[in-house]
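Quick start: what a row looks like.
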Amino acid sequence: MQYRKLIGWAFVGVALLSGPLFWNLMNGQPAPAPVAPIHGAPWQIDIKPSGSSRVFDVEIGSTRMAEIQARWKDGVRVAVVASSGELGALEAYVEQADAAGVMGRMIFSFDLEPTQLQAYKERATRSETVTGGARRFALAAADTEQAAMLPVAAIAFIPNSQLDPDMIYQRFGKPAMVQLEGQNLKHFLYPGKGLCVTLDAKGRELLQYVAPSNFDRLSAPLAQLPASS
């Protein structure tokens, strides 16, 4: 092991002496500043041995809502979002999130018992209609404090920039399956990453992340759709 370390340092020394650092030093010029690696980008998904994953520096199933609130502070809106006739879901919404230079909307979802979810809606301090006709119910202060201990169950990211199939293949690799929905939607499924990328010919693209061990959360709703190579 020690021999291998010495060999490694030797090659580092050769690289330094033959690279731009050596020539800058010889010419009396300062060495160029190192470029920081990209961290927290949408395509950087760290799979955990537990079957979970980490993306955007958030570990699905472990990171709690309180940590999301501490990170984005006043930029986080916590509410129950429900379409007409549906119970809805508890979400923490960030209007403009920076994912390693990729800007977009970020939505964190949290699992909650139906009775508790309904109680949150009934105690909401206010509600408002959002895009698509759904309603957003703002949590009461006591409920917000209680919900802060819930772990993130899923993440949705809507990038400001447009995506295309080539970009998806380049960043995420070849999907396990591609499914079509109607004339405008195409879903790229990555079970091993816990990821579904949806291209919308008439709208915004959507990236959805879950723990790989819980991928049926994304695939089950698409199970009846036709597959495409």
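That is the whole record. Confidence is low (pLDDT under 50) at residues 1-27. The CA atoms of residues 185 and 200 lie 5 Å apart.
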